[in-house]
Amino acid sequence: MQRRDFLMGLATLLALLPMKAIAALWNKAAFESVQLKDATSHLNIADELASEAIEIIAPDRAENGAIVQVEVKSNIPNTEAIAIFVEKNPTPLIANFMFSNGAEPFVVTRIKMAETSDIKIVVKSGVQYFTNRKNVVVLENGCD
Questions:
Q1: Where are the domains of the chain?
Q2: What's the rounded Cα separation, in Å, for the pair 92 and 81?
Q3: 26-70 pLDDT, tens per residue?
Q4: What's the distance, CA 56 to chain centroid?
Q5: Could you read off the pLDDT of 62-83 as tens digits, one per residue?
Q6: Which CATH superfamily is domain 28-138 in?
Q7: Long-range contacts of 42-45, Cβ-Cβ distance < 8 Å, separation of 24 or more
Q8: Cβ distance 119 to 58 under 8 Å?
């Protein structure tokens, strides 16, 4: 019985190790910020350069803000991260995707939007930050 308990405990420990690694990457302050400037500050985003090399595919009008599909592709070399913000949401930082070497900087996700707002994308490449925006008109509130 002791051997089985030991093996179960070891298996549980090994299963939880990746969760601890993921938790270490979680930037709680950035995701809980209620102001866009605070969220970008907590992500250490410095001067942003406008770039058309960031492709944003999202609807011009969203029937329901609870489900807005967004596709983002970065054509910026050596993209390390893609952050998605919606300024008029209760918490503006929606997602922060990190890429390792060789990964294609492309994401598709569904987000909630409280009201009509810009979707702001910030791409990190080295020590540079690039940004692009797309306005989405929300016809029905998604963040009640």
A1: 28-138
A2: 17
A3: 688 998 999 999 999 999 998 999 999 999 999 999 999 999 999
A4: 14
A5: 999 999 999 999 999 999 999 9
A6: SoxY domain (2.60.40.2470)
A7: 43/83, 43/93, 43/96, 43/122, 45/83, 45/122, 45/124, 45/129
A8: yes
pTM, whole model, 2 decimals? 0.80
How many residues are recorded in the chain?
144
Which tens digits make up the pLDDT trace of 13-28?
A: 556 555 444 444 568 8
Alpha carbon 93 to its chain's center: 7
Q: H or E segment at 125?
A: strand 117-125
Long-range contacts of 54-61 (CB under 8 A, 24+ apart): 54/121, 54/123, 54/130, 54/131, 54/132, 56/119, 56/121, 56/132, 56/133, 56/134, 58/119, 58/134, 58/136, 59/136, 60/135, 60/136, 60/137, 61/136, 61/137, 61/138, 61/139
